[in-house]
Design brief:
Distance between the termini: 25 Å
Shape: globular
Strand content: 15-25%
Helix content: 40-55%
Number of helices: 16
Radius of gyration: 19 Å
Largest sheet: 8 strands, antiparallel
Order of helices and strands: EEEEHHHHHHHHEEEHHHHHEEEHHEEH
Structural class: alpha+beta
């Protein structure tokens, strides 16, 4: 794959390049007829697993079905539905409150328990002798959304992660329609839910249609896309957590952008001001390289101020040794820093 896809980010020490991360980029204009690909690096047609970068698509049926309104969900709940959070006490409590409001509990989740990524919460639980629960799973918000949708539509709340469950069929249909391509292949994600394969261009097209929802979509789909993207912009903490790239970048963007990472080097950005959707995939799956390359891409396009400290943290990540001495760092390549829409 490296023979086709260009280098997007590097790691260096004292001028020596120690790592090179290749990957691909797709940018789609959601305001134009057919939502065309307007710029790319590498192979934008190759199919890939979007992993958690597609969570806003997985949350569309929650809002479209009327389940969100019936449950009285706030923007914080909707942000959590599209989150890969770090399992902090705040995230777990919000998921627990949501489930309780619809007559369900942690036991109804099918995402599995996960140790919190939030250090303060993790250390508190260790001191208290508490075991991680499914509420701490980074996908507990997404799964709360699945359960909420299932209960509202009369589908079974058991087995909601199975690919033939009505909720997952609705997710597959929404994903296919937004991406403008057939969705059939899938893999089981880390949280046990199906993750439907797309081309990188298709993922960017779906993001672009969210960005340009006012003109690209209609009816319940338009309203759902707008509500979900605005919830992310209003509540970046719920989407990830303190010290996480999605939260930091959205805060730096001051509501102009919505970004969402996924495992194995996947990332999307939604830019409503321009009606653009961006998708990025690092070939070797390195998450830090994906954060660096995406930040560089957004700065190059004028969507993000690279001087903002939160953005600079990912644009030029610093590596320190065990004595705290700066000894290296990362940077986007010229392919990213010179990226244009033509």
């Amino acid at each position: 794959m490296n023979e086709v896809n260009p280098a997007l980010a590097t790691r260096s020490r004292a001028g020596f390049v120690e790592r090179v991360h290749h990957g691909r980029v797709a940018v789609v204009d959601g305001r134009a007829a057919g939502a065309p690909l307007v710029a790319a690096l590498g192979d934008a047609k190759a199919r890939m697993l979007p992993r958690s970068s597609c969570k806003i698509l997985q949350a569309l049926p929650l809002v479209e079905s009327g389940a969100a309104d019936a449950a009285g969900l706030t923007p914080r709940h909707l942000a959590l539905a599209g989150a890969s959070h770090q399992g902090s006490d705040a995230h777990a409590a919000l998921a627990a409150e949501w489930l309780g409001s619809i007559g369900l509990s942690e036991a109804d989740l099918e995402c599995g328990p996960q140790e919190p990524g939030d250090r303060e919460t993790r250390e508190r639980m260790i001191r208290a002798g508490e075991a991680p629960s499914q509420l701490h799973n980074n996908c507990s918000g997404k799964h709360s959304g699945f359960l909420c949708c299932a209960k509202h539509t009369g589908a079974a709340t058991e087995g909601y992660v199975l690919p033939d469950h009505p909720v997952q069929r609705a997710v597959a249909l929404a994903t296919a329609e937004m991406a403008g391509e057939e969705v059939s292949d899938f893999a089981v994600d880390g949280c046990a839910a199906p993750n439907f394969a797309l081309s990188l261009e298709g993922l960017a097209r779906a993001a672009a249609r969210v960005a340009a929802a006012e003109t690209a979509l209609s009816g319940a789909r338009r309203a759902a896309a707008i509500r979900l993207r605005e919830a992310m912009a209003l509540h970046p903490f719920e989407v990830a957590g303190e010290g996480r790239a999605c939260t930091d970048i959205m805060r730096a963007a001051k509501g102009r952008l919505m970004v969402k990472t996924g495992a194995e080097g996947a990332f999307i950005a939604i830019w409503p001001e321009r009606g653009l959707g961006l998708a990025l995939k690092i070939d070797d799956g390195n998450g830090a390289a994906a954060e660096c390359a995406l930040t560089g891409l957004l700065v190059a396009l004028g969507a993000l101020d690279g001087a903002d400290p939160a953005a600079a943290r990912y644009l030029a990540p610093v590596e320190t040794n065990r004595r705290g001495i700066v000894c290296g760092g990362g940077a986007p390549t010229a392919a990213i820093s010179g990226f244009t829409l033509g």
